[in-house]
């Protein structure tokens, strides 16, 4: 055994009947301890041997022996059949693959750290003498890793403790086998841990905080092919600085905002509508100074909040059609025991029926250009992400043109959402307003008969509306328009 805790096995020799000088009893017997040392220069290089300080030893390519000796050391293998020895102190032994030959923590509280990602450390298939005197295993790495063990491994992995602490983060998997009894949570260092016992074995597993890993617009009334989730729109999230929202944060359907989806990793509870706060802005070209987001009115309660089990948990929220329309919506996901969040997160999405071309001058406006853009795609099959299939029927129809026509000249302020300190959350979004901006003069597909409609002119009055209808009638006969409608 390692008597002095330096990471080397020592030898005890008994001498039966030995009678050392100074021993008053004859033939009392004697014992001798032969301490192993590091004087085999071909086995441990000086660079791979620590001292009484807190050393960091980094291995090179090829099989090596790295020994931290005394102190709280970090010993990092570089792949291959390395032997990592912690020695005395609270040491960290790190590997980036599972080809290491042996790992010996030594005395103290020692940690096996699994770097990298995609690793499955299965202790049930590893001989007990390959990993010795380890009290903590950290599988956080740089991505998702897996650890498999049973109570037997907890009892055998350390010679001086029957307790094993496992640290992990979102995405990591832990298989602990049957027979455990869960106890009250405990705090281990900075982390909260779930505690499991089985006989003399105690397993403490870090509780991974919940996190929202996905947020989406869901067109609940979509009847076309494929998913109803809109992959082209982004729920804007409050971040460290204020951000101006763009066309990628705005939908334009005939149903308003009728569905949202949140993917929450490690969600501990069953969320309900009470775990959210729903607000909505005024309609039209409102003043942000007069109507800051925190003053927005309460939005209608959702008609359903359902949780789809899985990893992550998927939360589906729906509203009746047009309950929230032609305005911005603000959603706060509360930080509580149900969501598992440590701080609230705040998201925004907008709606303006018929808007297909993006903002101009600090506002979104439904213009003739929006109608012409829909018309250019008439009869095309459309998925849920289409900005031209307003009624989400799965096909661009004249009904979509008429829906935009019915909301002609409607406006909505292009808002700037506040920074984190003004309303929870954190993170960022991608503002793609410029990508979706519409240039009237660059649309080569516009017919010559449409050109008078593309000049700057008042959106007021019956004459302008009549000109729009006339342009449509020039290209589509009455029978074509009837055939394209969906009632």
Structural summary, described in words:
With 487 residues, this protein is mostly beta strands. It has 2 domains: 39-206, no CATH class; 211-484, no CATH class. The chain contains 5 helices and 33 strands. It has helices at 151-156, 368-375, 398-406, 462-475, 478-484, and strands spanning 11-15, 30-34, 56-58, 65-67, 74-76, 83-85, 92-95, 102-104, 111-114, 120-122, 131-132, 136-138, 146-148, 163-167, 173-175, 181-188, 191-198, 201-206, 211-218, 229-230, 236-237, 243-244, 250-251, 259-265, 276-280, 297-298, 304-308, 313-318, 328-333, 345-351, 363-365, 411-413, 416-417. The strands form 8 sheets. It has a 9-stranded mixed β-sheet. Strands 21, 23, 25, 26, 29 and 30 form a 6-stranded mixed β-sheet that branches. A 5-stranded antiparallel β-sheet has the order 20-19-24-28-27, with no helix packed on it. Strand 27 and strand 28 form a beta hairpin. Helix 2 (368-375) runs antiparallel to helix 3 (398-406). Residues 423-461 and 477-487 have low confidence and may be disordered.
Span between N and C termini?
85 Å
Low-confidence stretches: 423-461, 477-487
Number of strands: 33
Shape: elongated
Radius of gyration: 34 Å
Averaged pLDDT? 84
Helix content: under 10%
The side-by-side strand order for the widest beta sheet comes to: 3-5-7-9-12-14-18-17-16
The SS-based structural class is mainly beta
Q: How many distinct helices?
A: 5
Q: In what range is the share of β-strand residues?
A: 25-35%
Number of domains: 2
Most strands sheet = 9 strands, mixed
């Amino acid at each position: 055994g390692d008597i002095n805790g330096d990471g080397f096995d020592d030898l005890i020799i008994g001498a039966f009947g030995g009678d050392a000088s100074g021993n008053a009893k004859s033939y009392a017997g004697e014992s001798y301890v032969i301490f192993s040392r590091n004087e085999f220069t071909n086995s441990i290089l000086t660079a791979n041997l620590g001292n009484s300080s807190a050393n960091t030893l980094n291995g090179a390519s090829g099989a090596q022996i790295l020994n931290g000796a005394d102190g709280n050391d970090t010993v990092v293998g570089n792949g291959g059949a390395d032997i990592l020895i912690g020695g005395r102190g609270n040491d960290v032994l790190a590997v980036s693959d599972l080809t290491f030959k042996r790992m010996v923590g030594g005395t103290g509280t020692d940690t096996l750290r699994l770097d990298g990602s995609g690793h499955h450390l299965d202790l049930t298939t590893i001989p007990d003498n390959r990993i010795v005197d380890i009290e903590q295993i950290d599988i956080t790495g740089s991505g998702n890793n897996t650890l498999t063990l049973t109570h037997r491994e907890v009892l055998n992995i350390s010679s001086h403790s029957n307790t094993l602490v496992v640290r992990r983060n979102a995405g990591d998997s832990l298989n602990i086998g049957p027979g455990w009894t869960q106890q009250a949570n405990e705090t281990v260092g900075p982390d909260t841990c779930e505690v499991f016992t089985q006989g003399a074995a105690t397993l403490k597993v870090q509780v991974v905080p919940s996190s929202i890993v996905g947020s989406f617009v869901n067109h609940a009334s979509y009847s076309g092919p494929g998913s109803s989730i809109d992959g082209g729109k982004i729920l804007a999230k409050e971040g460290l600085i204020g951000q101006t929202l763009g066309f990628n944060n705005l939908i334009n359907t005939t149903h308003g905002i009728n569905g949202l989806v949140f993917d929450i990793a490690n969600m501990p509870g069953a969320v309900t509508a009470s775990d959210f706060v729903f607000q909505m802005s005024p309609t039209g070209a409102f003043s942000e100074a007069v109507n800051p987001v925190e003053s927005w009115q309460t939005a209608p309660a959702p008609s359903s909040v359902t949780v789809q089990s899985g990893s992550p948990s998927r939360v589906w929220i729906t509203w009746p059609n047009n309950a929230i329309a032609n305005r911005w919506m603000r959603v706060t996901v509360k930080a509580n025991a149900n969501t598992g969040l440590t701080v609230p997160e705040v998201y925004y999405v907008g709606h303006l029926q018929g808007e297909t071309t993006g903002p101009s001058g600090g506002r979104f406006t439904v213009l003739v250009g929006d109608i012409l853009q829909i018309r250019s795609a008439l009869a095309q099959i459309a998925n849920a992400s289409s900005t031209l299939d307003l009624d989400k029927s799965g096909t661009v129809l004249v009904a979509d043109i008429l829906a935009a026509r019915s909301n002609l000249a409607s406006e909505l302020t292009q808002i700037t959402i506040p920074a984190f300190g003004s309303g929870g959350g954190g993170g960022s979004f991608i503002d793609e307003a410029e990508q979706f901006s519409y240039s009237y003069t660059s649309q080569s597909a516009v017919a010559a008969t449409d050109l008078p409609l593309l000049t700057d002119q008042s959106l007021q009055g019956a004459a302008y509306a009549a000109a729009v209808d006339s342009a449509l009638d020039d290209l589509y006969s009455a029978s074509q328009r009837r055939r394209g409608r969906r009632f």
